[in-house]
Specification:
Largest sheet: 6 strands, antiparallel
Radius of gyration: 24 Å
Number of helices: 20
């Protein structure tokens, strides 16, 4: 199958043509999976090496095709880059550049869009407007500018003008591609992915809605103490244009910047963990569903001693609200995972996503990003290279097919939570923290136990006053369970601080 968009002068707007042809023998030859999988390798090690090389070649070819077609095909690649729980690492790592290196629309096409959407020229609104964008993504690009009436420095997010014309066709082509994949390979049904994109894309293309999401998230986190989250203030928004205050920083995986500015990687990891767990488990909290490295920045903040940095969150186009009952079941599922309670894991996996007994081991690996054998021992230790290789090898031995089928059955909100979990887990691993995942799991346990405690308080309140003897006993039991996690987290935080003062390595397991 060939998908190719012809763009005159490399312009990302207007005059595009799409050609679609089908040649399955050529597809097989070019992907080389059939050749690799049918090759009689000398041993398991050689077979694994050949398969990894095949993954890499095919990922690079796919990356080239996605970049040539642009727009939502790049958005598709960004989505795939976050799916460590589904795709081999050779694929996800190859697609990482799509997070912040995308085609650019011309200033002329942007000017035309401004006149069409606002009735005003760029110079009517801005004292200066930098012709070259400071960043370009799959659906939009950002220009620095200065407001004419106030002199305020702002960031202007503008949608690629051609998307209005081509996004519907691109979406149909995406659906056709996945339908063709399902037709020729029935076991690899990825139509759920195109369905999710079809649902999410209209929201991401509505910058007025994105502005409302940003305002809501900013207001929510203003009520959360000691959170170094910064969300740029929105000045005004149209469907294809968003103007906000200009705030810049460095990618969270820019380790040189962090180390040079004495920003503790462990504290950045903890801050990210608190922010996104608050979004998942907080009452009426909005969930940012696209927190990849290109949408997060870190900047130095010398106005306070701890933490000495801010976390800047961009791109608020894709948000979801998690139903309260789902939050509570999901919290119980994670507490069961952390406490290595397999019976509880299976129970709440069914409540959360309808997961059967046979499907559970695969689902457990998907939500944790870990080998199931590790899940049943402890997920609080770092992933070893051996474990990563085992998972990659398993993907080539049938697990990928099973996982594709499983993810096609779970509720769509669970897919977005999985995506958020996997992106934040990837951010944490890229920080190369000293304590490994132990601290982030304790922070997760804090939010989960808080959620369960809130449910218990609500249930006790339904049975009358808290001062009734029966209710008082239940209250004390619930409070003790909650405080057990709080004390453990406080002890661990103190333990880390003490080791930092003494200059000794931080632990990788829980105390």
């Amino acid at each position: 199958m060939h998908l190719e968009r012809i763009t005159p002068n490399n312009e990302n707007a207007g005059g595009w043509k799409v050609f679609l042809t089908m040649d399955m023998p050529e597809l097989f030859e070019k992907t080389s999976y059939r050749v690799t999988l049918n090759y009689k390798a000398g041993g398991a090690e050689e077979r694994a090496s050949l398969l990894r090389a095949c993954h890499r070649r095919c990922a690079e070819r796919t990356l080239e095709a996605l970049e040539k077609n642009g727009s939502i095909f790049i958005k598709l690649g960004q989505h795939l880059s976050s799916m460590d729980y589904l795709l081999p690492s050779e694929w996800t790592k190859t697609f990482v550049p799509l997070q912040d290196k995308c085609p650019v629309s011309s200033i002329e096409s942007i000017e035309q869009m401004f006149v069409k959407d606002t009735g005003l020229r760029i110079t009517d609104l801005f004292e200066d407007f930098e012709r070259d964008p400071v960043g370009a993504a799959s659906l939009a690009q950002v220009h620095r500018a200065t407001m004419r009436n106030t002199g305020q420095r702002v960031a202007v997010k503008v949608q690629h003008p051609a998307l209005q014309e081509w996004a519907p066709l691109d979406m149909r082509l995406t659906k056709m591609t996945f339908a063709a994949l399902k037709y020729f390979f029935p076991s690899y049904d990825l139509e759920w992915l195109s369905d999710e994109m079809e649902s999410s894309l209209p929201q991401e293309l509505d910058f007025a809605q994105e502005g409302e999401n940003a305002v809501r998230a900013r207001k929510y986190f203003q009520g959360i103490q000691d959170t170094p989250l910064v969300i740029p203030n929105v000045l005004w928004a149209k469907k294809r244009i968003l103007v906000m205050e200009y705030i810049s920083g460095h990618r969270p995986d820019d380790l040189e910047f962090l180390d040079t500015n004495n920003i503790d990687r462990d504290e950045v990891s903890a801050a990210l963990s608190r922010i996104f767990n608050e979004m998942i488990f907080g009452d009426n909290a909005p969930l940012h569903c696209d927190p990849h490295g290109g949408n997060i920045a870190i900047r130095k903040n010398t106005s306070r001693r701890k933490p000495n940095f801010d976390v800047i969150l961009y791109d608020h186009g894709l948000y979801r609200d998690i139903p309260r009952e789902l939050k509570r079941s999901y919290a119980k599922l994670w507490l069961a995972v952390i406490n290595i309670d397999e019976t509880g894991m299976r129970k709440y996996a069914y409540e959360v996503a309808g997961i059967t007994e046979d499907e559970f081991p695969l689902f457990a690996s998907a939500i944790t990003g870990r080998d199931y054998r590790v899940v049943t021992r402890s997920v609080r230790t770092p992933r070893s290279d051996r474990e990563k290789e085992d998972i990659s090898d398993a993907m080539g031995e049938g697990m990928l097919q099973q996982l594709v089928q499983l993810l096609g059955k779970v509720p769509r909100i669970i897919l977005l939570i999985l995506k958020t979990n996997d992106l934040t887990r990837s951010l944490d691993e890229n920080l190369h923290t000293r304590q490994g995942p132990a601290r982030t799991f304790l922070i997760l346990a804090h939010y989960c136990s808080r959620t369960v405690f809130g449910e218990q308080m609500e249930e006790i309140g339904r049975h009358g006053s808290f001062l009734l003897p029966r209710n008082l006993l239940r209250l004390l039991s619930a409070w003790a369970s909650y405080m057990k996690v709080e004390w453990k987290l406080s002890l661990y935080e103190y333990h880390i601080s003490l080791r930092r003062l003494l200059g000794t390595p931080a632990p990788v397991g829980l105390p």
